[in-house]
Amino acid sequence: MFGPDYTAGCPSCSAIADGFNGSVVHLANHDVTFSAVSRAPLPKLQAYKRRMGWSFPWASSFDSEFNHDFQVAHTEQQWEAGAVEYNFRSADLRPQEGQESRERDEFAASIVGTDWETFRREGPGVSAFALEDGVVYHTYSAYARGLDGLWGMYQWLDRAPLGRNENGFWWRRHDEYDSE
Fold first, then answer.
1. Structural domain of 151
2. Which of 29, 113, 134, 165 lies most in the core, judged by the most C-beta atoms within 10 Å?
3. Which pTM does this prediction carry?
């Protein structure tokens, strides 16, 4: 959602996170602890959290391997090799042949304030863990479109007459809709 070199959180991830506040209390009352994790330094996350009006727990994995271990962040070396592990398969996240670098960089800069490669080396994912007798077990992960179920807005749009109506850059951070 928020890489260390971003100036703002990803708009689509932010839209997903808009729904987290209301879920935290219900999860806690079913023996589930919720926390978002991003690679940006904690002060950057805290400032963005205030801007967005969020109260859910949000941890920084800055200077750790956490996101890399769960294959939602990739190093420059992995990027250059062309094959990264993401969504339970090997994928080449580099731009397709012929795609204008200026167009890609402008897109990335406009949504998170960085270049395309830096933006694409961070990917969305969700994982679940269980703690039993002092041992932490990784029990579940989903990536990419596997996160659609977490995006409460999608559930409503999928039932609306026009569906998701995804034309161009259709999502915004909730505080940016009036600034078009």
1. 11-165
2. 113
3. 0.86
